[in-house]
Here is the input.
Amino acid sequence: MGVKGKMDKRRLFIVVVILIVVAGVLSYVAINNSSNSNLNGKIGVGVSIGPEVEWVNAVGGDKVHVTLMVPEGSDPHTYEPLPNQLTQVSNAKMYVEIGSPLEFETNYMDKIKSANPNMLIVNASEGIQLIPNAAENESTTMDPHDWVDPKNAMIMVNNIYNGLVQVDPADKDYFQKNRDIYMAQLKQLDENTTKILKDKNGTDILVYHPAFGYYAKDYNLTQVGAMLNDEEPSPQRIAMMVNIAKQNNITVLYNEPQYDPKFMQSIASQVGGQVLTVNDLDEHYIQNMINVANAFAKA
Ligand SMILES: [Zn+2]
Here is the structure.
C-alpha cells in the first residue's frame, strides 16, 4: 500500500464522518419538525365556539394548545369549517363539542371526526338539562345556547376537566387545581349575576337573536327574540316587538355583534330607545358575562 492508498483511506474516513454528522443533523431537524406539528408537546384541543377557549385554557393551562373553529364575529348557526381548520384539528388529541343541537356541530361534527378519528370527543353538555326552543324562535327543537349561562358553564368546565384527565392522566393534579380556581370564579360570576339582576324579576329582554333562553330561565328574565327560525324578522315581527316595547315602557334593546343591528335600531328609533350590544360568543367568558348582566340590568 503506497501513499495514495493511505490518502484514499483518510478521504473515505472523512467522508464517513461527514455523512454521520449530516445524518445526525437531519434526524435532529426531523424530530424537531415533528414536535412542532405536535404543538411543542402541548395537547392540541379543538373547540367549536369562543367561550370554550377560556374554559380549556383555564383548566389546561400551559399544557394545552386550543384551536377555535367558529371565529369571533362568525355565526355558529351557519359557519362552515375551512380546510386548514380541519388540518389543524388533525393534530389535536381532543375536541370539545358543545353537544347541544348547534348547527355548526350537527352539520360538521362528522367531518371534524373523520379528519382525526383518534381524537377524544368530549360532550361539554353532558349532564345539562336542555330546554325546548320557544317554538317560533329557531329551527331546532331544543335550545342550543346552553353555554350562555354561568351555572351550565360549571358543568361544561368539569366535563372539559374529565376529558383532559383522560388524554393526559399524568397531569391530573395540575388540571384539578386549575379547575378548582376557575370554578370558584364561575361561582362568583353566578352570585354577581344574581345580584346585578335582582330587581329585574320577569323583565322583558328584547334581543335580536334568542341566545339567552337558559340565562333568562336561571335569572328570572323573559326573553323576546326578533329572529324567526334563524331568519331576519319580517316587518310584522318588528311591529310586534315595537308594541311589546311600548306596552312595557322598554327603551333598551339588544343586538349581538355577529348580526346587523339595523332591525333593533329600527325598533329603538320607534320607541325613542337605544340598542346595546351583548355577546354570546366572546372568548373572554367571565368578563363578557358580567358585561351581559350589566347590559340586561339596564332593561
Ligand atoms: Zn345562536
Remarks:
- Residues 40-194 form a domain with the Rossmann fold fold (CATH 3.40.50.1980).
- The pocket of zinc ion is lined by residues 77, 145, 209, 211 (CB under 6 Å).
